[in-house]
């Protein structure tokens, strides 16, 4: 009887195994889609997007590094024991001139950007958290909770935004005083209904999707469904609203400061307050006290507005235009007959 000797496995005898590609992580899938859409942007949307991003980045840099850029503090009126000139014109010592309180306009303008950035970030973050959370809960659960939240948000949305911010400012000023937190909370009340309405509408359509029904059928809790399945599908339209609200928050803060309902002048520099104090200076021919704060406010609002409009044109599928490459067909050639060695003709 013949015996068979087993051959030890080796590189020559092992069967080749197919190398499966590693699964692609979906944790940052939404960010990848946004970045891919930004890279595909062309024409006017691309110009608006990158111009707004550049202006916004310069505004943020000036605000963050304000203490290093500004020659003086926002409430400094003297240096070396010598008081600054009152309503002095721009010169070598004070490039943007001085105010009626002998304050340096350049320092006030730079610190005003710092104040606007702090209020803008706090207001957007507060309204983003509250509005998105309430919109998800209202859109997913529905019922009496949805009816109550929709009624409250529609009532808030019916008020003019500046009037609503003024009323909220009075309420919060009695609790926390005229501080940066108070101004941020006043603006937060204005923006919560916007996030709520957008997120609720997206959640109402996403909760009927097949993957959400499958997750519920497998016994997933509502918190898991909202966190893992709904949130990623409704958050894609939020960045556009955020950038637009950032520009509007700067204008709303300036309006509150112009009316004397914003931040106390002893706490921080604020562009709206400086503009309100500069009205009499303009009538007297002293233009520098209002020109530079107003110009800084206009440029900051313009930057975030261009950024928001550019993102809307790039991320909105109904407005986005993809780049179409021209297809070049090969030239037409005449068919040739080749005689093979076997004597057959091949075409």
Gist?
It contains 13 helices and 4 strands. By secondary structure, it is mainly α.
- Radius of gyration of CA atoms, rounded to a whole number: 31 Å
Count every beta strand, where a strand is a DSSP E run of 2 or more residues: 4
Detail the poorly predicted runs.
11-29
Structural class: mainly alpha
Order of helices and strands: HHHEEHHHHHHHHHHEE
The biggest sheet, with number of strands, parallel, antiparallel or mixed sense and barrel status, is: 2 strands, antiparallel
Helix content: 55-70%
Mean pLDDT: 79
Distance between the termini: 60 Å
**What order do the strands of the largest sheet run in, or round the barrel if closed?**
1-2
User: Which band does the percent of strand residues land in?
Assistant: under 5%
Discrete helix count = 13
Overall geometric form: flat
